[in-house]
Amino acid sequence: RARARDTRAQVLDISADKINKPYLPLAKGEFSREQGIAICVACLVVGLALGFAPATPLASAPLKATLLGSTLLGTAYSMPPLRLKRFPLLASLCITSVRGALVNWGFFAHAASVVYGLGAPSSSAAAAAAAFRCGCATAFFLLFGVVIALLKDIPDVAGDRAVGTATYSLRFGRARVFAVATALLQLAYAAVALALGAA
Q1: Rounded to an integer, what distance in angstroms lies between the CA atom of residue 177 and that of residue 170?
Q2: What is the DSSP string of 18-54?
Q3: Residues 6 or more apart from 126 whose CB is under 8 A from it?
Q4: pTM
Q5: Which segments cross the bilayer (predicted)?
């Protein structure tokens, strides 16, 4: 599914990528747009099929919800008519929702369901400790998602300006965005270190 996301982004951003990332296969012309769409659809179908395969015991409800949720949010982020990446705040919320909350809690719930099945954990203290660690990871990756949302557009200012995509880097300047992202990343590492150290 991640490959579908990456290919989808390249298919939809060819004009900007010709300026920002001319080495990418679609921007470089190594693949046609139609081939890119075919690769994107194939990756999406295979990814969802693996997650929803009825014959495997690993196809848990949390995993299915994570796959569907991240696919829907990624589609809303990249594709018309919503194409939320046009709006810096909504783009940041999409990225942090997937990378922060959805993936961490979804995969944690999936792993717990595979380990414990339908029964209760053998130790409530162990389960609580695992949930706390997952909460710490989720909090870290929420902040980390904000950092990614800020940093990913810094090198792409020229192409984003050319195609009219509003980003924080265009609005506030790359140096200021980089400084804020660096401070947030340091805060995330410090907060998780303190939380896990106190646990």
Answers
A1: 9
A2: HHH-TTSHHHHTSS-HHHHHHHHHHHHHHHHHHHH-T
A3: none
A4: 0.75
A5: 36-55, 61-80, 87-108, 128-151, 177-198
